[in-house]
Design goal:
Two copies of one chain form a homodimer. Chain A contains twelve helices and five strands. Chain A has a five-stranded parallel sheet with strand order 2-3-1-4-5, with helices on both faces. The longest helix of chain A is centred in the middle third of the chain and has 20 residues. The first copy, chain A, is α/β, with parallel strands linked by helices. Chains A and B meet through α1, α2, α3, β2 and α4 of A and α1, α2, α3, β2 and α4 of B.
Chain lengths: 230, 230
């Protein structure tokens, strides 16, 4: 009988490091944390940034409502079908302050995993509470967290209202909606503020790319050129 | 005032697809789901596979106790410090059957995110219940899920006992320990069975790599060679 335990210790020490993953990818991992009111343009700009990064050979990935609320942070109704009622009540996430805290906590931990994998994790959630965002920041190393405030006045967001959520909140059909009957706490010291009521999303996305280049997080050339040609 | 909502719809449709991410990476995303008793060698083999994949330019990432139980699926004691007692009791995961179900559910959703990012997600958890593994399988597309049974008899695992857990379980110091007083349900139809009591971890890892190559999930050459040289 082979004793794997000795090998285990050895190999755990030689697990692939973040630096080695970043070398394979040709750029650093990091977390771009978009925050702002519903309909401020977070998801639009986040997906544009993802698109632009991918086009220059950068490995990035967007975490947003589409892939998080239907999976990792599903609500009771969604969990019920697969796991039964009792499980769904115990583990399904709602929209109370505490459930939002857990929602953001989990997203922070997953963003950190992607960052450790050498990927640029892009999160696009309202994430209204400062303390929750600060905890997500504290999960990663200094300099890995780029907090991006997508700044648009409530009136602008409410006028857009692409999913009719503000209307429902004003009508009292949904409760605890950020900006209406739940507070949005703007970042005190975000790395970037995007003026999302004055500039088109395309311009804002370019600002983010330029910022990452200025920081040296990504090169200004497609990364495969730098690695395999230049 | 610019109307970003129209752009949003446009760009959501043009989000980077999984196929485009896989093209950048030079290989397919997938989920390698290791399952087996504690001390069967799951984590050892998983980390070796990760290491070998990385060495040939494949983007992979290991989810295991080290990075999941300290973050995403932290227990009450760990959450208490940052979030307070009431939050920790509400959201901290324990080791009851239901908590394990949620533990594996979350890991499945995160493995899917990595798979969608074009990465080979490698999970190394006991994951003792068949239904939990089957739900993780159902989260991804047919063929994306490779269930790998790390097969070692209980006696072998118990003799290794690198963390002294079996001893504690036998002494009644911990309860609900898989193989002692909680069941392990071996996979009915795993994609691979690794004979972890007869072969060294290195050989088992090579078997996994060969399987992925035979499936065409990864090339038999370093991927950058195929993309930029060949």
């Amino acid at each position: 009988m082979k004793d794997l335990s000795a090998i285990e210790v050895h190999w755990h020490e030689h697990a692939v490091s973040r630096k080695e993953r970043e070398e394979l990818n040709g750029h650093c991992g990091s977390v771009l944390w978009f925050t702002g009111l519903s309909a401020s343009g977070k998801s639009t700009v986040a997906n544009l940034v993802d698109h632009k990064l991918h086009a220059i050979g950068i490995h990035s990935f967007v975490l947003d409502g589409d892939n998080i609320r239907h999976g990792l942070n599903a609500g009771p109704a969604m969990l019920k079908q697969q796991h039964g009622d009792e499980f769904a009540q115990r583990f399904g996430l709602g929209f109370s302050a505490r459930d939002r805290e857990e929602n953001i906590r989990r997203i922070g931990t997953v963003a950190k995993l992607f960052c450790d994998a050498g990927v640029i994790a892009i999160t696009a959630f309202i994430s209204p509470y400062r303390a929750d965002r600060d905890r997500a920041r504290a999960m990663v190393e200094e300099g890995d967290f780029v907090e991006i405030f997508v700044d648009a006045p409530l009136e602008v967001c409410e006028a857009r209202d692409p999913k009719g959520m503000y209307r429902k909140a004003r009508a009292g059909e949904i409760r605890g909606f950020t900006g209406i009957d739940d507070p949005y706490e703007p970042p005190a010291h975000p790395e970037m503020v995007l003026n999302a009521s004055a500039k088109p999303a395309e311009t804002l996305a370019d600002e983010v790319i330029a910022y990452l280049q200025a920081l040296g997080k990504i090169g200004s050339e497609p990364s495969w050129q730098k690695r395999f040609v230049g």
